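Question thread 4412

I'm putting together a teaching handout and wanted feedback from people who do this every day. The idea is simple: show students a protein as raw sequence, then show them the structure tokens that encode its fold, then repeat with a second protein so they can compare. Below is the first pair exactly as I plan to print it.
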Amino acid sequence: MMMVSAGELGVYVVESKGGAIACITLSLLCLGTWPALLALLERRGRLPQHTYLDYSITNFFAAIFIAFVFGHIGESTPEEAPSFITQLTQIQDNWPSVLFALAGGVGLSIGNLATQYALAFVGLSVTEVTSASITVVIGTSVNYFLDNKLNRADVLFSGVACFLVAVCLGSAVHSSNSADVEAKLGKLSGDCKTVSQEEYCQRLFGGEEEEMENVKEGTAAFLIALENKRAIKVLGKSMVVGLSITFFAGLCFSLFSPLFNLATNDQWRTLEPGVPKLIVYTAFFYFSLSCFVIAVALNVTFLYKPVLDSPRSSFKGYLNDWNGRGWALLAGLICGFGNGLQFMGGQAAGYAAADAVQALPLVSTFWGIYLFGEYRRSSPRTYALLVGMLVMFAVAVGLLMASAGKRETR
């Protein structure tokens, strides 16, 4: 059960280990779902610049909601934990911690932006597996030492090891599935050759399915029609490009959680004596503010100077593009609340344990299979590797959660 206190501190604080694990679990579900929505829109042909701008708006809105609802309740205690509003007026004293939070937001924003392009090149499952592995190896290790070894090392690093095994299995899944795709494309003559792009779109995104009986998910015709529809063209392009973007995204993700940890716990003693540490909700607000500013600046630039051969657009074109806007806005809300829950759980149980949300490929792989048929009609070897990867991820997230400690409060 989640235990919170609101009276004397003026904020809601997760206090129990069970409450922290509940926050982390919900965060895992959220953070594994929003990439699927972005991938869905890209496959529908919506420009990634338009999608990410919409996503950024509601992502920031979620941070404001969390800060005002959970960070400004009850009476404030200035000497211990001021409320969210109180700390906003104390930036002249707590600015070092604010800078850490802002830097973390920059890392997350760039990482999420890179992820959106990586999803098109290497797929939902491989993108999430690779970026999560880098985050665990770097970010979890850093958080463990920043938290003064709050978590049980034997359990924590056993989870990290399981995660790395799952990453190897994930790479094998991708290699096997790529071979399956090549085999399908080599047998195009055996698939339905008469399928039109319009008919394909009806089959994949809703419509009169009975008119598409000759089209089967996972076939060569399906893959080629998808390429014709999607916003970012990927067939025939080097996998090195996509993997490089994915590794870059993982590096960015590995930094934002330790920076948020420093913002809320001041392990480097950057605050003057007597200055209260940033509460989670204040840090999350500044974190999300920089994330929003960077996202808007980069994506407005990409409207006019697109990258990776994406179509050029304009701000007017973005405003007039309502196709899929609701899904993009929903993705931002889901991601915003997922990040907030991760930080709330991490403040109570340790940010290394909160990095269990990096097992989000469990969720993303489910959506990849259910929504996109990523492994439909694949070989038995691919299915066996896929099951092994998912089992190892489940073990990894269980071990990381079991390593949770309890942070001492003043």
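The second pair follows. I'd like the answer to focus on this one:
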Amino acid sequence: MFIDEFSSLPPIIPRGPIAILGLGGGTAARLLLHLWPKRELIGWEIDEILIDKARDFLGLSELEGKNKHGGGLTIHIDDALSDANDPKGGFAGIVVDLFSNGDVLPVLKEAETWFKLRKRLRPGGRIMINCVEEQRRGHDDDETLQSTITGENHVLYAMSKAFPGERLRVEGTAGELAEA
């Protein structure tokens, strides 16, 4: 998934804060606040050095706090999957961008993780996840991709357990779409 796809989340969710789980250098936060300056973003990143460098060299500190439109970014250097700093009423949207060594975190392949994330949403809230590369690795055709989506150890399979009956979409390069 390209970071700019995350910017399509605000128009389809209710009012309220958006969580960014895996803030990284703040690219998604910057784009979201540029396009949706009234949105409150709460970002989690486990790597304090990355946040410090992003503040120093990528202008992350410019996004922190409230902006003139009432939106802004709050940063937590902590486990993104902990609900300890969640707002009352939950999140309107959750962006999940959690990787280690180039792969999605193994915990994202567990249904229990998605049950917990679902509880962090307010009514009408949605989750958007970056996991396309993990799904596409070694799969060149739609049939193989579809079997991967429903495989036991796959992120979307785990998500489908927590969101039964919900439409899960996978978008890859232009024109590619698979649904579970």
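Top answer:
Good format. For the second protein you could add a caption like this: DSSP finds seven helices and ten strands in the chain. Residues 89-133+151-167 form one domain.
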